[in-house]
Each structure stands twice: as structure tokens, then as C-alpha cells.
Amino acid sequence: MKAKRRAQNGLQNNDSNQTDTTTPPGQTTDGKKTVYIYHTHSWESYLPLLQQTSSSSPDDAVSSNNTANVVGVGDMLAKDLAAKGIGSEHSTIDATAKLQEKGWNYNNAYQYSRGGRAGSHG
User: Fold this and answer.
1) How far apart are CA 84 and CA 23, in angstroms?
2) 89 with 32: CB under 8 angstroms?
3) What stretch of H or E contains 33?
4) Is residue 45 part of a domain?
5) 73 φ, ψ to 5°?
6) What is the mean pLDDT of residues 105-116?
7) What range defines the domain where residue 41 resides?
8) Which position has the higher pLDDT, 18 or 68?
9) Which residue has the higher pLDDT, 31 or 86?
10) I want to staple 29 with a disulfide (CB 3.0 to 4.6 A). Which of 87, 89, 91, 96 is the partner?
11) 119 to each of 29, 58, 86, 89, 95, how far by Cα in Å?
């Protein structure tokens, strides 16, 4: 239970990785978005964050909840980059839904991302 609480706090609050925002960074990207963050497998999650904590199989670590899957990690990365003066764009696209629209399964996730369809506008 403690591991689940620590994991949830880490993704939801990002307290342990807060960047000191009182001092502006010395160099910035001057508002330009130079980093693009996307997730080919946006449904992948972490067992400690999921309700089904009785499972020990990593294959069961899936979620459409962006606070419990890799999209939450991308949110933290985007915030940390911004605090360091690095502009980014973070795609929160639901890759599962986009794959299903094409009649594809998770094995096609990389193919989908290479096709330029991982953008935040879908």
C-alpha cells in the first residue's frame, strides 16, 4: 500500500522532482518548442498506481487514466523541461483509440507513430 501511495504522489504531485522555479534558467529556448513528447503505447501504466494491485504481471499494467499511465510521466517531463526554460509539446493522444479506429492492435503502435499520426491533434 505504501508503494502505491508513493507512486501516486509521484505522478500526481511530482513533489520529489520539483525544480526550483524561483531562479529563472540562464538559457532558454526563447518560447520555442524544441522537444516533442509522445507515447507510442500511451496505455502502459505501473502496477502500483492501478486498483488491481493483486496482479504481479507487468502485462496487466494498462490504463486509460492519464494520471496512472505513461502520459502522466510525459506531463512531469514537460513541466520539468519548462522549469528549465526548454519549450516542449506533449501529445496526450489516446493511442489505443487511434489504433482501434484503423482496425489495428497494439502491435501496430510503432507503425502508427512512424506514420506521423502521433501528433496531439490526432
Assistant:
1) 10
2) no
3) strand 33-37
4) yes
5) -65, -40
6) 85
7) 2-11+32-114
8) 68
9) 86
10) 87
11) 21, 27, 19, 9, 10
